[in-house]
What we know:
Blueprint: E1 11-15, E2 21-25, H1 26-29, H2 32-36, E3 41-47, E4 50-55, H3 67-73, E5 87-90, H4 105-120
Antiparallel strand pairs: 1-2, 1-5, 3-4, 4-5
Amino acid sequence: MPATATAVETFALWVSPTGTFRLLHWNTITTPQHALCSEAVLPISLTSELTMWADECAIPLGHPRNAHASELLRAYHPHPGLHFGDVVFTGATDPRTDTVHGLTEDQALTLIDLYLLRINTRVPGARRH
């Protein structure tokens, strides 16, 4: 029986400032630049296996603040900072080849669960009389 190779499907999580998110098939996208439609992207390393990519042109182009991405980042960094425009979450980057890896199915589902938990959890504010 001949050996056959099967492609491992990988993903990226795209999050917009409106809170809309999409799971992208990374095998067809392959670069953060393509996913964000921008040549100027900034990698933000969250773990050894997870990277968030932000569009560096978002502020000069007047794109809105992405509070949803900042809230998700809070799970990895206590002070995530402000991010603007669309962002994409991928796997790690291979330092030898600069290849950006997609998320495995488990990583993608874990990130979506975390995203949904964080944006749906509201901390009650002070009561106003």
